[in-house]
Amino acid sequence: MKKIMLSCTALMAGLIIHAQTKEGRIVYERTTQMQIRIADDNPALQNMIPKERKDRFELLFGNNQSLWKPVEEDAADQGEWSGNGMQIRIMAPGSEDITYHNFAATRKVELRELAAKKYILEDSIRSMNWKLSGESKKILNYDCFKATAQRIAKRTMVNMDNGKMERKEVEDTMNITAWFTNAIPVSAGPDQYQGQLPGMILEVDVNNGRTTIKAIEISGKIDVAVIKEPKGGKKVTQAEFNKEREKMMEEMQRNNGGGRVIRVGGGS
Question: What are the CA-CA distances from residue 247 to residues 58, 170, 185, 254 (Å)?
């Protein structure tokens, strides 16, 4: 315990000494391991399923705010594979979401899209219970420190049995390892890992590689005026959005009964 407290003190001291970059743009690459099993043992369909999916996002930060969104030139859908008269479409969670964070107000606003409909979700920023280990490594020439946390989340399991797609949500324990730098003294990072640690998170690993998010490019000054709340969607609660998503998935299953198209949406 004493060692951990000393490590925390050293990190906070570094936050003051190395406070340099307070605005900029970071590009992250997310790699998701695909966990899809075909219960009716269709080898042609099983071989079509990719082992992983990669996509890229950018984080704009400044004025104690941030904006997380897909990289524009990466916007084309990379999650479709065809062959042998079949088509697979992978819907990775958060691939098209835009999220705004205001750290001073501990507030976030998300723009999500379902079936060409847009929704706005507002919530507070909730911090996880992080443990600092004192371990360090360099990422893109930044000294980064290790932090770990656990959280319970829901994920979607998908099975194909006799041409019928079955989905169910299960609770999943997520073991999270994050690497952050206090040389960028902004409590931000990729995806939902914002407002969490005393510095920018440059790398996240969930469950030993099931999902990894890594910074691949960091640039300096930006026009901070572009960091603003997303607009143009119907305001809903998280529970209301979950119901809309479930309805959409059920409709997609009905419209594509026979198993020729598989669409998979993961949990958060």
Answer: 30, 18, 42, 11
Which parts of 159-214 fold into alpha helices (H)?
Answer: none
CB 92 within 8 A of CB 55: yes
3-state class (DSSP) for residue 81 = strand
Check: CB of residue 213 under 8 Å from CB of residue 54.
no
Residue-level pLDDT at 43: 65
Q: Are 56 and 28 in contact (CB under 8 A)?
A: yes
E-assigned strands of 207-259? 211-219, 234-235
Predicted pLDDT of residue 50: 65
Is residue 83 predicted with pLDDT exceeding 90?
no
Phi/psi for 233 (5° steps) reads -135, 165
Tokens of 117: 């409909």
Distance, CA of 34 to CA of 249 (rounded, Å) = 18
The model's pTM: 0.77
